[in-house]
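Methods — Computational structure assignment.
A single polypeptide chain was analysed. Its primary sequence is given first, followed by the predicted tertiary structure written as structure tokens.
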Amino acid sequence: MTHPADRLAFDRAMVTQPVWNGFATGAFLGMAENALLHAGPAFSSVEHVPTPVLNSACVAAVYEGLARDFDQAEAMIRAGEITLHPAQDMGVVTPLAAVVSASMPLHAVYDVWKGTARAYAPINGGARPSLRLGLRSEAVLGHIRWLNTEVRDALREGLAEGIALVPLAVEGLQGGDDCHGRTPVAGAALVDELVFRSRRPTDPDVLEFMRASPSLFLNLWMAATKCMMLAASGVAGSGFVTAATGNGRNVGIQVSGLPGHWFTVPADAPKGEFDVDLPEDRALGAIGDSAVVDAFGLGAMFKATNASSTADARTGLSVGTHPYFRAMDVQLGTSARKAIELGKGPTISLGIIDRLGEAGRLGGGLYDMPVDPFVDAVRALDT
């Protein structure tokens, strides 16, 4: 039985139509010039920032012009002259160890039906040297500069009046995507739409990058999911999950009835096969705001609901269906109260990255969110 407040929050999330209609910046959202946004809940101190996040923060600081080189950037971060903040607290979602600076272009996604919920995400770095992998290098810095100029311009050129994202997600799911770990169908449909709308030919290098980057859609879908979650925020007494994420050290959630309040536990590493010959202890703890996708019922949860051995347990977390997904019988949302009944939270599909910040991506895996933050959230709601 779904709690009435959870159902109300869910219904508010479902009565949305997230549309990507342009780009914004963190400065536009009110970010301070010396602030950087990271995935997950806040760090208790700068000493607790994992090396991959620190590496990305150093690259972002040089990109932003806050420091002349990576070493100066690290010194400024450790001295508190450059500060780190949770991205989701500003309606921004960022993947793995990627860090957002004030001037970086962000996909702007808003609810076209009501216009009150808005969420943002950086451009996905694709398979090239990417900020999300937590590497401190000139190659990553150069790629970020190219991504946020030439690629941004090509995306903007093809965007026109905006692109509705739920229909693309449905097309992806029908073609074998899960909207998190697998997005090639939705990604190809997105690129085709952008190229079709463009008034002039896309730069060949940019087009090659876009076609070879199925995860280009992922960051947009993260923002769309966060937009729907934000529409559900603020329902008194509701345990509907409106944020789910990890920062490499802790994982955390927020619920509708207590906006802005994080409930956290230490983060274990996702479990999965490595693509490189390194020991298992090189894996960083669960990290990335892409966890919102799975907490919303897609990603690993979509795979689970289509596997008969785990269907009952996984769908037991969900609240209902979205009109667009109804034909596929996709169950969406996570209720903290239902997580307590099941004794566990959603399963999250995450990349596994090197905790030493040297090898980047080690592989992909699954992270089972423990029940503890859901227990804490419901306890807080009850008091």
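Note: Residues 95 and 290 are 6 Å apart (CA to CA).
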